[in-house]
Amino acid sequence: MILEQSYAERLSVLAPELWQASLETLHMVSLSTLFALALGFGLAVLMILWNPRGLAPQPKFYRLLDTLVNLGRSFPFIILLIAIIPLTRAIVGTSIGSGAAVVPLVAAAAPFAARLIEAAFLEVDRGVVEAARSFGAGNLRIVLRVLLPEALPALVLNAAVVGIALLGYSAMAGLVGGGGLGDLAIKYGYNRFEPDVMVFSVIILVLMVQAMQSLGNIIYNRIS
């Protein structure tokens, strides 16, 4: 009972900081997910077009883009986070804070999102694509009117996967002052030896993951 009261008292004291850190985490994850999906969608469209069996085959360009996407996925996030600090400063003006963390988060997630979106597009029945082509539809129309609607349920689940992955990345951004729950857990839970802060941060992150996945499942069930 004493331990429970102690945790309850600590929670009431830490509530403002936990709330602020949670808002920073949501800010980072929402912005980076949006930008990563947008950039990943563009890359996936190019890969679908340039694929040797794609809508506008360009094998050389496809191999180059495929290599770049694989290269982007191969960097561990913590190394990428530090390596592109000069780029982050050039874009945002600082390398500290939740706003600055968006740049490496997008850089890490965009290749991952591109591969997921490409896989969703490749799952679309080729017969549907050929039927659209036989009616005279251009490549852009096929992508927007055929591939995108047919792959939309899978894309919704993929968006949830990307968002959850970025939630984990955002916690690592706390190592370099990225803000959010990761930063709070490291400053208090690790550096100041306050394990209750770590416990509260982990609980909030778990709840966020569950909420994101549940939202993705609800949207998927409605549109599939």
Features of the shown structure:
MetI-like fold, elongated, mainly alpha, 224 residues, 84% helix
Verbal overview:
The protein is mainly alpha-helical. The chain has one domain (2-223): MetI-like (MetI-like fold), CATH 1.10.3720.10. The chain has nine helices and no strands. It has helices at 2-50, 59-74, 77-83, 85-92, 98-122, 126-134, 139-172, 180-190, 195-223. Helix 1 (2-50) runs antiparallel to helix 2, helix 1 packs antiparallel against helix 7 and helix 8 packs antiparallel against helix 9 (195-223). The longest helix has 49 residues, at 2-50. The chain starts with a helix and ends with a helix. 33% of the residues are buried.
Order of helices and strands: HHHHHHHHH
Q: Label the structural class.
A: mainly alpha
What are the low-pLDDT stretches, counting only 5+ consecutive residues below 50?
none
Percent helix, as a range, is over 70%
The portion of residues forming beta strands comes to under 5%
What is the CATH homology-level superfamily?
Answer: MetI-like
As for the CATH topology, it is: MetI-like fold
Helix count? 9
Radius of gyration: 21 Å
- How many separate structural domains? 1
CATH architecture: Orthogonal Bundle
- Straight-line distance between termini: 48 Å
